[in-house]
Amino acid sequence: MSTDILQSNDESHVSRACETYSLTTTQFHALHSRSSAAKATAYCPYSLFRVGCSILTEDGQHIDGANVENASYPVGTCAERVAFGKAVTEGHKKFKAVAVATDISPPASPCGMCRQFIREFCELPTPVFMFDKDGAFVVMKLEQLLPLSFGPEALPPRGELPAKA
């Protein structure tokens, strides 16, 4: 799939996305509804920009999160990082899909920091579904959102770090 804007109420669009990314339509609809519902828990009194995220684990569980802002703007945390933080601290390490939802149209993608954060925990072919306020969506693989990415496998093992020169 590319940056084509698809419709979540068009079963041919949903079926094509599910077939491409090995998801069931039930999993797709859960990602959409849960990421959209997660927006209601956002704490965003400064930007008023609600974002919800739902992550589907390899074992079929959903972990949700929403953005949390702070008066010191850089201290805020995006929905994706909230959801992955919850997932990892609850023991989840393998993920099948990520969904984000916003109140704007067209769909918005995760920010650069979140793309890198997702990269820490997801394989490059992982689909990222991006839903807008009307249910339209774009889906892209993580490797499309973060080309030439740097991930944990790029780091040398701790015992193999070169000595200081």
Automatic annotation (TrEMBL):
SUPFAM superfamilies: Cytidine deaminase-like
Pfam families linked to this entry: dCMP_cyt_deam_1 (PF00383)
GO CC annotation terms, alphabetical: cytosol
Binding site for substrate: N67, V68, E69, N70, A71, S72, Y73
EC number(s) from the headed UniProt entry: 3.5.4.5
PANTHER family: CYTIDINE DEAMINASE
Function: This enzyme scavenges exogenous and endogenous cytidine and 2'-deoxycytidine for UMP synthesis.
Protein name: Cytidine deaminase
Source species: Hyaloscypha bicolor E
